[in-house]
Amino acid sequence: MTSGSYRIIGSSPMLEGVLKTVSKVAPTESTVLVTGESGTGKELIVKELHYNSPRADQPFVPINCGAIPKDLLESELFGHEKGAFTHAVRSRMGRFEMAHGGTVLLDEIGELDQPLQVKILRVIQEKEIERVGGNQAKNVDVRIIAASNRNLEHEVEQGRFREDLYYRLNVVPVHLPPLRERKEDIMTLAKHFLSSYCQKKQRNILEISPQAEKMLKNYSWPGNVRELENFMERMSILCEGDSVQSEDLPDKILSENSSCSSTTPDREPAAQNSGNFWPSLEQLRAYNTNLKDMMEQFEASLIQEALSESDGVKNKAAEKLGIKRTTLIEKLKKFNNS
Description:
Layout: E1 2-3, E2 6-7, H1 13-25, E3 32-35, H2 42-51, E4 60-64, H3 70-78, H4 95-98, E5 103-107, H5 114-126, E6 128-130, E7 137-139, E8 143-148, H6 152-157, H7 163-169, E9 172-175, H8 186-200, E10 207-208, H9 210-218, H10 224-238, E11 243-244, H11 251-262, H12 267-273, H13 281-286, H14 291-309, H15 314-321, H16 325-337
Parallel strand pairs: 3-8, 3-9, 4-5, 5-8, 10-11
Antiparallel strand pairs: 1-2, 6-7
Helix pairs in contact: 8-10, 14-15, 15-16
């Protein structure tokens, strides 16, 4: 879906619900609290709110409360007067004054300590700030939007976040779900990012093979959309063929897919029916071996079988095993040297 000045890509019901809320609250002056895990795209949602509001032609000023050192944060937010502290050789305007008439994003607001929380509460209530070292209140006309990857309600319960500030911020809550909860958007985003980076690097747009697509959909994406975008940029640089194959995927995606397939309900009966067995401690003792040696034997046997079926072609063998070709070569070297 495209709206405002920024593209928010996806068509899952959960994302559509978020965008519906955003379209309703954007034209208002209401304070909004955007929550979600890191990498889900909270700042895109905030920009959507700003650029579809009556303040769209006024400043949009983001402040990452977790990235600025705590001893400098108050000055960054509210500015300071000349001589307020060492090296304050002249007066300086803060971010709230810079944003006058526009929108302030307080990103990762859960990182603020309590004294600054009190001052933010005053900005919301009184629409005024006071510079560090100053004694005169200055009026500021800003819309405040806060964002956090923390559960602020839990932070309130633990006494780390002021309850009154939480309710002032949480007038309209917008929760952006993690990518693993909106799997319908994974391939839409993946193809968009891959196409975009291929075009920037002036190479033919890569396809994504069905097996690789299945693995991408099954992966949990702990880094969310940011992780997916970074991975697609990597593919646009490193992928040598005309398409992204399963062996091009990083080990952690292959490992998670392998783990998922090994826990499917029909795996154990299928192994038993074919005459295979899962090793037990009794069998370790009977063969006078240990877990490490048995696992290496098991791995070597599977690799040899895959190579045999693939007529020694390592690319095909790696694909059968669900690992990268480079990983297969490393394992073969290890077995040859042992």
